[in-house]
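Internal tracking record. Fields below are filled automatically when a chain is submitted to the structure queue. Please do not edit lines marked as system-generated. If the sequence contains nonstandard residues, flag them in the REMARKS field before resubmitting.
Queue: standard
Priority: normal
Entity type: single polypeptide chain
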Amino acid sequence: MRSLTPWLLWPYRGACLLALAWVLVCMVLAVYQRRLIYHPTQVAELPPPATLSWGTVEPLQFETVDGLTLQGWRVRPRKSGEAAPAAPPVVLYFPGNAGHREYRLDEFELLVRSGAEVCCFDYRGYGENPGSPTEADLHRDARAAWNHLTRSLKIPERRIVLLGESLGGGVATHLAADLCTADEVPGGLVLRSTFNTLTSAASWHFPWLPVNWLLRDRFESQRCIDRVACPVLCLHGERDTIVPVELGRQLFAAAPAKSANGVAKEFVSLPQADHNDVVQAEAERVLQALEQFLSRAVPPRG
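SYSTEM-GENERATED OUTPUT FOLLOWS
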């Protein structure tokens, strides 16, 4: 058999080089994928801000099952002349994959304006906290945060609303499902700009990669949200370029139509919002949705 002429070998060699490069990229992503998922901002110390006009902040601290001490904040409305409910809702806030809790002050302010207190802790490896984040550890830490609120701070379960932002929606949904299964039903679940599964979000960004084979931390909210018995509210920007709104709608479709106490699930579309500018672009729409949801899920008591 006559050998191929040199010019016929170039397409073959090019295809081999492309295949090799693809395999190498997959190998690198498989090894370093958590550096792509988690983007913590680390600091030596994160003291509570003392000059907020709308609220006061006090430190929170609890220990994880593997002995790490995680830091957070409890944010309360600044006292005014108006009488506040004796037992306002308490939002247990789960941040997205980047920064630390101080980056969320605008969101905390909106929640305080809606009539709630906010408890937010940084995941391990974020802020001043030790450790490195993985999905399994974030789920365990979320349960430890819940236990701290309900057991150490003695906050009734039905007063606590879980709120997950972006990747934090995967943490909040998993916690809500586990709590409802254990008959520790929280007051509600709010999901803001989150996905049905991290696999779906990663596949949308990298359709040329075998994400389903490579991804270790999957945050498969769509598989567990049917166990959530508390009221559910989803907020999602129509212009979201990081988590497309259709992924949020798929997660919403998988949630029960009504909570165990008869509150219908609700999806609030935010026409002007992308992923990271929800508060800036749609503050009033988000505030109205939160106020209405909290009044239904956790009725005020004098």
